[in-house]
Design goal:
By secondary structure, this protein is mainly alpha-helical. The protein has 22 helices and 7 strands. The protein folds into 3 domains: 125 residues, Rossmann fold, CATH 3.40.50; 162 residues, Serine Threonine Protein Phosphatase 5, Tetratricopeptide repeat; 168 residues, DNA Cyclobutane Dipyrimidine Photolyase, subunit A, domain 3, CATH 1.10.579.10. Bound molecules: flavin-adenine dinucleotide, ligand DLZ and iron/sulfur cluster.
């Protein structure tokens, strides 16, 4: 085989034709490497639908590149000589193709970047690690923004991104006079029988082959391949985006924080997996959403809320991840160490909220933001579950989970394990919040109105016990002044009842009883 000039290595979450590693690529000269490897599929036990999504999207992308004339060296998971790791496959490709340069786009995980940095020495080959142009804010820009700030408040970062992009801007001012319309987006929802159907993406022969492979190879991973319905090409992802913009965006704001039994998607976008894999361009989506507002088809609170999630939160958590890794992964500000209960994998719990959210996670490899934050995340923090084990669980179970976005959301936003770097107060709530924002409590084996003792909603006593046992670390937080004042106003007898009720619940949890 003639020597190729550049070997371009494309990872499973870099499936974009405008990815930086492809800039200047020449099909007549360069070879592309893509590989399905055991190490990536098992470093946590990813949900089966997540593996199907990534491998099927990779295979479809390789076909698109071949149709453009590229030679793609594509290694399948079940290929006889597959070495099982990125480095092993790279080594085999270098031996076979003898390239003069290696080109990659920086990966989304610190662990992979760390390995990449040694490739130049190991393979005695120039390695060009290019910035990932799919993000608005480079590592250097985020560093510059963070420099010298006492608090890394997302809202201020978001305003910078609004100014930088011009999205929803009227000169130097935000359209409508306000930057943030979140106050209008906190309503509970009623079942809506008229919610339009979601587009479906029936598996083609490529996806079917991957589904069989995944079921056979990963029998002990969560979920099943059956029922797989994710977009696996950019055309399918665009169809999903068009459907969201036309049919769901107008109500996106209203139901953003709501949770309903039997309606796991409400008006959410279901686009995070497509964006994170590279099938959709996040900025193009924001421009399309802005158009819906300017042309009168969607209200400002919905469009601003959607844009904020993407150019605000999504960019911000990536900035935090790269600024504080690898030390960020070990943060455990509240010193929590309880192992995850088995119901995180089975959904077998008497708590209807957790049974619903985890059950939907097992079925769909998806839960929406408030389910992740205020049900599973809130429970984990109140019960003192080990944040690192919880991070691995989130990385496993959600189809959109890649460490750069998952870890700050879990360690920072949901567990306060970073000590308040990402959020100014812990997202801790009693059963009253879940009852207000969902219909889960109707028919739950526990009574949300009962505060302690047998049959009481466990979130109630756990909430007070959480504040009590973390008092030293949290009492000084201005945003917790009101709950601490309420706690201190209580009779000592009442406080003791809460403590005992929480301890009785946690003892059952530790004993492996069904709670
Ligand atoms: P929508 O609610 O419709 O939001 C629109 C888009 O905004 C999403 O597609 C996503 O790209 C972006 N977005 C919204 N919130 C966030 C956020 N907090 N951080 C980054 N992007 C955001 N998101 C992931 O992409 N991967 C994860 O692994 C992940 N783990 C999470 C873990 C926890 C504990 C929490 C609280 C949130 C997590 N999120 C994660 C953020 C958010 O929950 C998901 O992006 C969202 O639920 C995806 O569904 P959707 O496309 O329907 O989003
Ligand atoms: C998550 C994942 C999985 C399950 N499998 C593969 C794979 O076989 N090949 C691949 O290139 N990428 C895979 N990925 C995504 C990678 O884990 C991801 O690209 C890195 O973690 C960097 O973000
Ligand atoms: Fe969850 Fe408590 Fe409501 Fe049951 S009563 S669904 S445990 S919040």
């Amino acid at each position: 085989m003639p020597a190729c000039r550049n070997l371009i290595f494309i990872l499973g979450d870099q499936l974009s034709h405008s990815i930086s590693s492809l800039e200047g690529a020449d099909p007549a000269r360069d070879v592309i490497l893509m590989c399905e490897v055991a190490e990536e599929t098992t470093y946590v036990r990813h949900h089966r639908k997540k593996i199907v999504l990534i491998l099927s999207a990779m295979r479809h992308f390789a076909e698109e590149l071949r149709a453009e004339g590229y030679e793609v060296r594509y290694v399948r998971l079940d290929d006889a000589n597959n070495s099982g790791s990125f480095t092993g496959e790279l080594e085999r490709a270098i031996k076979a193709l003898k390239p003069q340069h290696l080109i990659v786009t920086e990966p989304g995980e610190w662990r992979v970047l760390d390995a990449m940095r040694s490739w130049e020495t190991t393979y005695k080959l120039p390695v060009d690690i290019r910035p990932d142009g799919r993000f608005l804010c480079s590592h250097k820009d985020f560093q510059a923004w963070a420099e010298g700030r006492r608090e890394l408040t997302m809202e201020f970062f978001y305003r910078e991104m609004r100014r930088r992009t011009g999205l929803l801007m009227d000169g130097a001012q935000p359209v409508g006079g306000r930057w943030n319309y979140d106050a209008e987006n906190r309503k509970p929802a009623k079942p809506d029988l008229f919610r339009p159907p979601r587009p479906s993406f029936p598996p083609d022969s490529i996806t079917k082959e991957v589904m069989d492979l995944v079921d056979a190879r990963f029998p002990d991973h969560m979920g099943k391949a059956a029922g797989f319905n994710f977009p696996v090409t950019r055309d399918e992802a665009q169809r999903a985006a068009d459907s969201f913009l036309a049919s769901f965006l107008p109500q996106f704001g209203e139901t953003q924080d709501a949770m309903l039994k039997g309606d796991p998607f409400l008006n959410h976008a279901l686009l995070s997996f497509s964006i994170n894999l590279g099938l959709l361009d996040p900025l193009a989506l924001c421009w399309a959403a802005e158009r819906e507002y300017f042309e009168g088809r969607a209200p400002l609170n919905a469009v601003e809320g959607f844009i904020r999630q993407i150019i605000g939160w999504r960019e911000y958590v990536r900035g935090v991840y790269w600024l504080f890794m690898p030390e960020y992964a070990r943060r455990n500000y509240l010193g929590s160490s309880r192992p995850l209960p088995s119901f995180f994998w089975t959904a077998e719990t008497k708590m209807a909220c957790l049974a619903t959210v985890i059950g939907e996670t097992i079925d769909n490899a998806y839960a929406h933001h408030i389910q992740r934050l205020m049900v599973t995340g809130n429970f984990a923090m109140l019960a003192g579950l080990d944040p690192h084990a919880l991070h691995e669980w989130y990385l496993e179970v959600y189809a959109d989970a890649f460490e750069w976005v998952e870890m700050p959301n879990v360690i920072g936003m949901s567990q306060f394990a970073d000590g308040g770097l990402l959020g100014s107060k812990p997202y801790a709530a009693s059963g009253a919040y879940i009852s207000r924002m969902s219909d889960y409590c109707d028919g739950c084996r526990y009574d949300v109105r009962k505060k302690s003792g047998e049959g009481a909603c466990p979130f109630n006593a756990l909430y007070w016990d959480f504040l009590d046992r973390n008092g030293e670390k949290l009492r000084g937080n201005r945003r917790l002044a009101q709950p601490y004042a309420t706690w201190l106003r209580m009779e000592e007898g009442q406080r003791e009842t809460y403590r005992r009720s929480a301890q009785a619940f946690l003892a059952k949890l530790d004993a492996g009883e069904v709670v």
